[in-house]
Amino acid sequence: MSIQPRKQRKNRYEAPLHKRQKYISSSLSKDLKEEVGVKSLPLKIGDKIKVLRGDYKEQEGKVIEVNYTSYKAFIEGITFSKPDGNAVIVPIDPSNLMIIDADLKDEKRLKNIKEAS
Question: Does domain 5-111 have CATH number 3.20.110.10?
């Protein structure tokens, strides 16, 4: 793989879905790191997270949507109110999130964790 920024960006923009999922990873809390044995996991709907940076710092919520095209996660309860009064869910970059409680009921996810460690 190249170290040129233009080629790095191109690879990211043109990545297939199975590679995009890896890009949407967030770090785990200390307790989860010890329990699972890895430092980070790809975000999944149902994970409980905490925002580490930005305007919504220290807020917690569940992941309600993961957008693979824009590499963003949508968290329940983190909204922005528009001037007309409507509330819009704010997309947040996964690098600014920490997984507090991962949804470990999925067998495929557990299998991937065991293969990674």
Answer: no
